[in-house]
Amino acid sequence: MFKKMMVVPLILLSLLLPLTGSATAESVNLVSGMAYTVENGVPTQHSYSNFSENGATYDSEDGLGIAGKLTDGVRAKSGVKDPAWYATFRSRSRYVTFAFDAPVAVDGFSAGFYHDSGSAFYAPRYVNLYLSDNGEDWFLAGTCNPSFPLNASSRRFDAKLSIEPTAAKYVRVEYCCDIFGVCDEIEIYGSKT
Q1: What is the pTM of this model?
Q2: Which residues are paired to 132 by β-bridges?
Q3: Cα pseudo-dihedral 29, 74, 67, 173, rounded to 10
């Protein structure tokens, strides 16, 4: 009798296990078309923050609280003159910050950059992912670095990082900008559940 009583609960438990596993949310790009802000890593008064040359503008209004180039889903197809790039100049780094209405589960990011040491467009030496529940206290969730030297020939650098799913209401990507930098898209992966 005791053996029969144990078998029935085990059978019921085994029927429930697949249901629990299938309830896991699929990871998607949480910031597609989303507005964001862009801040410089250090003040720019000594970095020629409004540098422009031959019609190219750096640090335009793209990141001032509107949906812009970094979340429009358009990847650059050619060199640095492709209009899909968001261009930056010096000021140590850029902080691209996304604010969600409610906490989300973040499990990674990707960001696309162009590298051409011959024209001073460098892929960032580091790309950091920060998470926060209040927008003031930040936790460094991970760092991504290129696998090639900074004197390498022209190429695309797609920074990618996966982390354990972590709840956050604010997500920030920081990328280094030594001289000129261009980024075409930032994607934050996770789920809204």
Answers
A1: 0.80
A2: 170
A3: 60
Q: What is the pLDDT of residue 63?
A: 43
The tokens for 73 are 């889903």
140: tokens are: 């460094």
> What is the C-alpha separation between 182 and 155, in angstroms, rounded?
12
> Token pair of 187, please?
């994607």
Q: Among 33-42, 47-56, 94-103, 177-186, which is the least confidently predicted range?
A: 47-56
Residue with tokens 């949906």: 67
Burial of 142 (0-12, 13-18, 19+ CB in 10 A): middle
| Rounded Cα gap, residues 59 and 172, in angstroms | 17
Nearest 5°: the CA angle 113, 171, 57 is: 40
